[in-house]
Design brief:
Elements lengths: L1 H23 L4 E5 L10 E5 L10 E5 L12 H6 L2 H4 L2 H9 L3 E4 L6 E5 L2 H9 L5 H25 L7 E5 L19 E7 L2 E5 L1
Parallel strand pairs: 3-4, 3-7
Antiparallel strand pairs: 1-2, 2-4, 5-6, 7-8
């Protein structure tokens, strides 16, 4: 457990450092989503260049894979075993900006927050045992698979956490409909995402 906690904090430091590089070296701005969020609702964020919404020629959209990676990262294994150029999206961002692309760095793994369950919600979870066995087993299986995928990151992010929590998903924003490629004009976009050990880009 101690080793896992060490790696968790190491990964959190990497994530924070990559965010800083996106802003300081790549000159991207951090944009809160939903753009029309109220003060109390869950929020996430992405990074984008100053001209991402106004560039009339071309755009690069970077999308990382699922799991524990965050915006600006391809794979933590590559960051640890090789270097930041191999494991992050930073080289692609810098080159894209040099070649006149608008840039958007998505952050799809930050799409919910965990909040403590109220007593009523905990009681409701207990009462679900009255469901038919088959339905309950199917629901439990889905929940276990989902939990397994995020356990490494979530369980050790707060080792002292003992109270039951629930996920609050972040509302989909109408931000995308303000992007220029939703206009009538043909708008060249390049998408990059990570597959195996190599980023894959297409337009």
């Amino acid at each position: 457990a101690t080793r896992l906690i060490f790696f968790l904090f190491f990964f959190l430091i990497i994530t924070k450092y990559v965010y800083e590089l996106l802003q300081k070296e790549c000159h991207l701005k951090k944009v809160t989503l939903p753009v029309d969020a109220t003060e109390s609702e869950p929020k996430s964020f992405i990074f984008m260049s100053e001209d991402a919404l106004t560039n009339p020629d071309k755009m690069l959209v970077l999308i990382h894979g699922n799991g524990v990676v965050r915006a600006g990262q391809w794979a933590r294994r590559l960051i640890i075993n090789e270097d930041l150029d191999s494991g992050t999206q930073i080289p692609y961002i810098k080159r894209a900006i040099e070649e006149g692309y608008g840039v958007i760095v998505l952050n799809p793994n930050e799409n919910y927050i965990e909040v403590e369950k109220t007593k009523a919600q905990v009681q409701l979870s207990s009462d679900s045992s009255d469901e038919p066995a088959e339905k309950r087993e199917r629901k439990d299986k889905i929940q276990k698979e989902t939990k397994k995928r995020r356990d490494f990151y979530e369980k050790y992010r707060n080792p002292q956490k003992e109270k039951e929590t629930m996920q609050m998903y972040i509302r989909v924003s109408f931000f995308w409909f303000s992007l220029p490629f939703f206009n009538d004009q043909i708008y060249p976009i390049m998408y990059c995402f990570h597959m195996s050990s190599h980023p894959l880009c297409f337009s």
